[in-house]
Write a structure and sequence with these properties.
18 helices; four-stranded mixed beta sheet; alpha/beta; TIM Barrel; six-stranded mixed beta sheet; about 45% helix
Length: about 475
Amino acid sequence: MSTSQTIITPIKTDLKLNCLTDEQLSQLQEATLQILETVGVKFPSDKAMAIFEEHGAQVDRETQIVRIPRELVMQAMSTVPRYFTLGARNPELDLQLQDGVTFFTNDGCGHDVVDSKTGERRASTKADVGMMARINDYLSSMSFSWTMVSAQDCGVTSPLHEIDITWRNNTKHYQSVTMMGEEICRYGVEMATVLRGSIEEVRQRPPISLIVCSIAPLVQDKEAIEGALVLGEAGIPIVVMSMPTMGTTAPATYAGALAVGDAEVISATVLMQLANPGAPVFHSILHAWADPRTAAYVGYPLDSRARYAPVEMAHHWGMPALGGAFGTESPELDSWQSAAEVATDPLLVGLAGAEIVTGIGLRDSYTLLYPEAIILDDDLLHQARYSLLNMEVSPETLAIDVISKVQPGGHFLSQKHTRKHMRTAMVRGVCHQLDSEGKYRHPVEYAREKVTWILKNHHPETPSAEVQKEINRILETADKELKG
């Protein structure tokens, strides 16, 4: 068993950052309605097109483009729940979405790992997924778990193996970023049902959720959207994520890119609501830039002020939002760029009010894992969290009586009040860890040591033997059927 209790410390604040005015939000929504009604979105899925046809949308079977009347959009969007619960394996770690609370997690899903001890760079495996799930379970900044790196040694059934190894090492809610297609998702629902004991319990406290990405501009992915319909039928939450790149797969203006991304998200959300009214859905737009000289992907230019606007757009629609943070293009762990590009993210996305946020721990444009990087990013998140906490101002903290005792020119170290509060006055971060000589240690060195300590000492409770036996049976069946 673990030597420490798993806890969650999200960012909580009453403060708000507004990127957009009410008028601008209305203009963006109107642009989305115009795009959906006149331009349309491509749905290369017979199942999706049939659902739209049944509800009166204009469907061109030859081009697979669906045009959705604004009345149908608004009707469908009225059934999206604003808040709901993300269930964890441990009921005490369930996440109840609410205003003013932002839950964070790591990023996913990278494909390369740099070993903390050897420095070797290699392809990620199922064991790496489990390692990072265990570290995620230990860190209080991590409110739920993503597949941080992919189980590349498991082939086409890797999404199911990632669920399995995560549940063996993590007691929080799990959000998959790799499940795609009707078959894989049906196995995922079966695994969730085994864990919970019934499909009714899955609906009440869904232990998994899923990221579903569109294809910019204005195309839905067949496998992703059909898998989403399977999970929506089971009441399992879906995040519809658009990732437009300004200048290539979206207009080279903030407003244009946001309009395209929003149309992709809302079109998929409408489908989910038409199929299963009340299905829990998150809104997410993670836009990027194309370098005008090379067309290379750029996630963090000097002017990235609209990165948090999608959170407000989601709330304007009455939906919860998944925000992005902590990304960096740096392939190095110990560099100015690696820290600079992530330093302000948790503060700003918390102020924007996103319900859930991903992005902690990866480098090189979300592809490369240094296990110790999550310790460094965890430190930055807690700096932001403390910055947004309400300061206690009371007779005890004002300490007027103590100040009166010390008098001008005196010293507070001898006071009982000082001895009481000094241990909690300064919270040590990774930059203020001491060595045996009382000198500050190198943060990366400390982070690597912390990873080793967590893996040695933190052992979350695993699913019961009966549940694990059933999950193993499901994995064996999926491996036989899907691997041919």
